Amino acid sequence: MTVKAAALEAIPVAAPTSALARWYVLIVMCLVYTLSIADRYVISTVLEPIRLELHLTDSGVAFLTGVSLALFYVSFGIPISLLADRLNRRNIIAVSLIAWSAMTMLCGLAASYWQLLVARIGVGVGEAGGTPAASSIISDYFPAARRPMALTVFSLGAPIGAWVGADIAGRIADAFGWRAVFIALGVPGIIFGALVYFAVREPLRGRLDATAGVRRSSLLETARFLWSQRSACHLMFASALTALWGWGLTWWTPAFLMRNYALSAGQAGGITGPIHLIAGTAATVFTCWFLGRPFMNDPRRVVWLLGSGIAFATIPSIIIFWTHSLELAKAMLWIFIPSIYFYIGPCFGILNNLSPPRMRAQFCAATLLIANIGNLIIAPQLIGFLSDLFAPAHIANAASLRLALLCLAPTGFWSAYHYFSCARTLRQDQERAIGAAH
Length: 438
Description:
0% strand
């Protein structure tokens, strides 16, 4: 698909928007994020069937399903974010959604290892244009004090998308095979991409900020400003390490359950899917409500909350892969899985308040860059490599995968350290970026 640059040029809406219009755009962006998460992580539900059909090792299937997508997702993220900070973000989102949905369908049509590899690369390229542009648009519909709340609503797409990619996808895989899963997810995305193009209006960039301006920022200028914002650096590392810990463990959890407890893809998805939907959504909604309380207007309290929550949830994440009791593992999953969601919205919201309007998509893309290097490149490949290494004759089994996952689980404590460190200069850095301390 070719898109002329002129078609992406910004035609901003400068007039004040109603509460209904703001929430309409927020819900649409949430649905875009839902499809992104579902298409990205559905492959973890069918990881074991794909590995067995293609006769792959754990490290081999990790590269095929995770690393191949992430390498191009992170590579295209920064260039597309530069466009999102200059051109029409609504159009970029629509084109990206249609592109990655089409490539998701091709994953289901792939007849060989190499065809599936190319299709996963295509999904990564398409998804690179979604979240940064969506986050930037939301920030021009909601004022600074409401952005952590608005981006938390946006992040509801993560648990909903993970539920679709686990429970619904698992049922489809058991009934029709793993290839049918990708077809079922790809078609709705193409249709919804067209609706985004016709049903969302582009807002005037930075119209709700005291430091709004039309000057564009180069990648080098943005990098220098980001490095000078110490709280932003700590927040980016904190969210990246949370993703490495939480999403890295989640990526292999269905395969772990299938191997250790002799479950099918549908049965494993039936365990994790409802937890993603119910507990993940509840954690996100509660966080949204809690951040809306007047005493949470101080952004330092937000990062203190995030650090405390992640540190606490690290303990059950270790128990899940240590115990041999399925019932205990299920109970701990109800504590661990919600923790991989409640940090997403607040992190994006605070990050957008630490960046000038002209740099927002680039800040978001930089955060996603290091986060996805962690959770889509390092974590899946490291776990796959360690699982092969720990196994007899380097042929991965249930015990080797368990040990590999136990090596990753304690990294949640590391991410908590960076959340607490972020609070030290947070208020000063926020005032410098947008002219408001809270």
